Every structure is written in C-alpha cells, then in structure tokens.
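ingest -> validate -> predict -> emit
validate: passed (alphabet ok, no gaps, 108 aa)
predict: started
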Amino acid sequence: MKTLLVAVLLLVGLTLLCDEPSFGWYAVHLDGLQMFEPFLEGLIFVIIAGALLLFGLFLAVSLVGALLLGFGAVLFSVLFIGLHMFWPILFLLLVIYLVAGGGKQTAS
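emit:
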C-alpha cells in the first residue's frame, strides 16, 4: 500500500512538473493545424507517465519478491539440511532429557 501511494504521488508530481513540456512533446501537427486539444495531450502524457510508473512499480515489487523468495528457500534448505544431518544427536539429547526426568530434581 505504501509503494502504491508513492507511485501515485510520483505520477501526480510528474504530471504537474511536466505539464507544459508534454504539450510540446505529443503535439501532432498536420499542415499547421493541431490534431489534439491541449487537454487530450495532457491526458496522453498522464497515461504514458502512469504506464511507466506502473512498470517501475511492478519491476521493484517483483525484484523484492524474488529476493525474499530466494532468501526463504535458502533458509528453509539450510534448516532442513541441518535437521537431516544432526537428527541422531538431537534424538539422543531428547532421550537423555526424558530419561533424566526433564531436568526436574526431587527435594530431599
């Protein structure tokens, strides 16, 4: 949600800062006549800026998601391998703990 809010604020900021240049960039002229109205040119700019921001948001979220997934997989595999290698020792420690009375001592 925070990332989406930042993306929307960036879109509004880009629209407000680049409003005037957008009229010059996307103006299509035929024989000296403007084909698009200034409002439509601004709308086209907002759509292009929004598409670029959504692409950047998707890229950032997918990269962070991939890193978190990879980190989780490595952590799970290390835990699984550790348990697989040391299960006999852990089993013996559990048996000793249970036979010894669970660490409880009787009062004399």
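The helical segments are 2-17, 19-25, 38-99.
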